[in-house]
Structure formats: C-alpha cells, structure tokens
Write the structure tokens for this entry.
Amino acid sequence: MTMAVTLKDIAQRADVSLATVSRVLNYDKTLSVSEQTRKRVFTIAGELRYSKRKRQHIKALMRKNIAVIQWYSKIQEHDDLYYLAIRKGIEHQAQVCGFTTTSIFQNNLDQVGDDIDAIVAVGKFSPVQVQQLSRLSSQLVFVDDDHFAQGFSSVVTDFTFATNRVVDYFWRRGIRDIGMIYGKEWSTDQQVEIPNQRQQSFEQALQRHHAYHAEYVLAGDYTSQSGYLMMKRAIEMLGDRLPHAFFIANDPMAAGALKALQQADIAVPQRVKLFSFNNTTLAEYVYPEISSVNVETELMGKTAIDLLVSRFQDDRQAAQRIELGTTLVERESTK
C-alpha cells in the first residue's frame, strides 16, 4: 500500500519549512520567496504525485484555534519588549498558517476555552503548571522555557554561548574586572525560582579566567528601576573598585544602569562599558546606544507555530527541542 504524501515530505525534499510549502501550494501571493523556490516546491509536489484534493485536506486541517499563554501580564509585557516580540512572532506565523490565536496573560488558565486545539506557552512555568497545561491540550509547545526532558516540544535561546561571547568580548579588550546585573524571577504560582542561565554562564566563564568576584554581581528584578538601583548600589559600595565593564541581563535593566552611571558622572563607555541582552528597540533609544546580544525573539514565536504545524501533520511525532543562536550587536556603550 502506497503511503500518502504529506507536506512534510515535500518540505524535506525542497529544504524549506512546512509553512512555506503550504503557502506555495495554496498560491499565497503575499509569500516572499524566490520564483526558483516556488518552482522547486511545485516540481517536487508533482514528482511525489501530491494531489490537489490532499492540499485541500491539509488546508482544512490547518484551521486550528491556538491559545497563546503568556506568563507576563499585559503591563509587564509592554515594559519588557522581549516577550511582546515573541508573541508577535507567534501571531504572525499563526495568521500565515490559517490559525486563530487567543492571547491569555499572566498564565490565567481559567480563560482557556474548550475549543482550543493547541497551546503555545510563553515564559517560565513550574512543574505543576506544566502538568496543568498538558491536561488542557496534548498539543503543547513551550517558548523560552525548556521542558524537553519532560516530553514537551520547546523553543529556547542559547544563553551559554552568548554569555561566553560577551565575556570574551571584554577579555580580548584587556578588561579583567567585569560585573553583572541580572534579574531574579519566580513562576506565577510562586512555586519555583527561575534559574538564571545568563548569571550561571557568566560565573562559569569568569571562573575559567580566575576572575569571578561575587561582589561585582548584583540581582534585581529585570525592570529599568531595578537596573538603576543595582548600579547605584554598586557605585556606592565599590567606589574606585567599580568594574570597568558590566554585562546586564536585559535592555530595561541596562537603560536603568546607564541612568545611574550618568547621574554619578561616570562616563560610558570611557570609564564603564555596558553590554546588554535581548537587543530590543530600547537599546537604541538611549544615549549612548547600548551594545546588546541579539535574540531572534520573533523567530522563536514563528518556530513554535511551525512545530505545531508539524505535529498536526503527524500526531505521533516526538517532542523536539530547538535552540536558536544569537549575535552580538556592538554599539556606543562598548566602543
């Protein structure tokens, strides 16, 4: 018996995503791909004898309702553009695939309707919350939280390599005293303190250089005000021993830290250099502009939807863990 050809078969042969194959075969004129790619998809579909009736079936299959569960509140999301960008990536790719999305904030699971076909969970979740989510839908993908070991598909960012690159960036420039300001967080049910991979990687990287100093590391809560207060504390506590460079865990905290340095008449980047994480638009809206690790936040959201498309094609598919790389964006705060 001949196995039915799927979009996945075509995508693998054409070396493109499932979403691209679906949009090409459905003559989506808004899709931005080369004519060569379009021809390759149609050619492979013909070679595999992928029928129009099958395409119509897949298109109908793609009419799904997706709950996007954000662990942040609306206010928190707008204060930290990192999670907003992830959600925008999810919603854009869902629209491309013909999905309907419902945004639910602050992990309010009571708002999850009975008509939901899948869940994309954005943020950090305790083991209890993970089990609650899995009972609401068997089609579950986590973004920015790694639950692959528990059998759930996860889309995450490479924190370790990115942090090592920042430390190496300063080290190559002869800076040996490097501090860090990071945030502490808890799951919304207050059951689990979220491990900070950036802080852990930073400590390990500097220990390899025998240059880690605990007094150079301060913990806040990821807000701009917290970054301001932590840098102000470092200035008062360390005086002339203030590190010549700081790695800061997100852009809002970096903006707050910059403000504290400027108020103390400490020149950036001449006396203290700052390197942030996330590379949201905020990093460019301050003076001097802040160097930052660029995280592909929108791609994280899009990838989560692509994983769901794949799972809808094959209910037996195993969980997948996708880790996206980062790049360093150098700006005036480190030059």
User: Anything to note?
Assistant: Confidence is low (pLDDT under 50) at residues 54-58.
